[in-house]
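Tokens for chain A. Residues wanted.
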């Protein structure tokens, strides 16, 4: 269509895919299917039927020929004067200077360094935990079974004497949990430590965080296990 005078609307015809409710029907069926996993099998069956119906209706809107509809679009055109370009310049702050709160690390540690640090730290934490179990409870397996009790109900309800004994399943579960946590913590430190403002704070962060975590876990495990055994 030809352009109208200034200040008048200009109309055009646009071809768009036709509106259809089938995507919403399919989504509703998917919600019913998932909800049936925690409610009833009947809900999942109904959801599967709704999904199939919605998919068939949706596909029929597309195959063999896509359905379209013509939409009339109107836009209001006026002569807008061009915006004058400003000659002002913006001074960009350098990260870390003049009180800038963003610290972008100049040097980034490789992920392999974080994994290696996680393995070394995990071995150190395991040695400290085993020494605590040996000194406080007379058994190396006491802290191992405490860690495994988070995933094994048999150890969660066990008494103190049973926690002092060796359990192969508890050892495997504790080894897997401790290994995964150590590797993740190592990767986290590899990413965060270069962003710290000084090596002094990085050292104290690396030293105090494991010590605080060890003390927190020891205190809560000592409070949790008696309650579990009493229950």
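Reply:
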């Amino acid at each position: 269509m030809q352009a109208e005078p200034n200040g008048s609307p200009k109309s055009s015809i646009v071809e768009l895919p036709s509106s259809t409710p089938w995507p919403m029907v399919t989504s509703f069926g998917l919600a019913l299917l998932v909800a049936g996993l925690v409610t009833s099998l009947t809900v999942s069956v109904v959801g599967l039927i709704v999904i199939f119906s919605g998919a068939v209706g949706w596909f029929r809107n597309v195959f063999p020929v896509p359905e379209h509809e013509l939409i009339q679009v109107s836009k209001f055109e006026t002569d807008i004067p061009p915006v004058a370009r400003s000659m002002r310049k913006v001074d960009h702050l350098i990260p870390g200077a003049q009180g800038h709160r963003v610290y972008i690390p100049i040097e980034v540690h490789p992920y392999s360094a974080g994994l290696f640090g996680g393995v070394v730290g995990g071995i150190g934490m395991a040695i400290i935990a085993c020494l605590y179990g040996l000194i406080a409870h007379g058994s190396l397996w006491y802290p191992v079974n405490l860690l495994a009790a988070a995933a094994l109900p048999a150890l969660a309800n066990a008494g103190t004497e049973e926690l002092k004994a060796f359990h192969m399943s508890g050892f495997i579960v504790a080894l897997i949990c401790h290994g995964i946590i150590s590797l993740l913590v190592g990767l986290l430190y590899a990413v965060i430590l270069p962003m710290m403002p000084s090596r002094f704070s990085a050292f104290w962060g690396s030293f105090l965080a494991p010590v605080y975590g060890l003390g927190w876990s020891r205190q809560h495990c000592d409070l949790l296990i008696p309650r579990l055994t009493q229950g």
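Residues 1-5, 223-231 have pLDDT under 50 and may be disordered. The helical segments are 22-35, 41-60, 111-137, 141-148, 153-156, 160-163, 168-192, 199-230.
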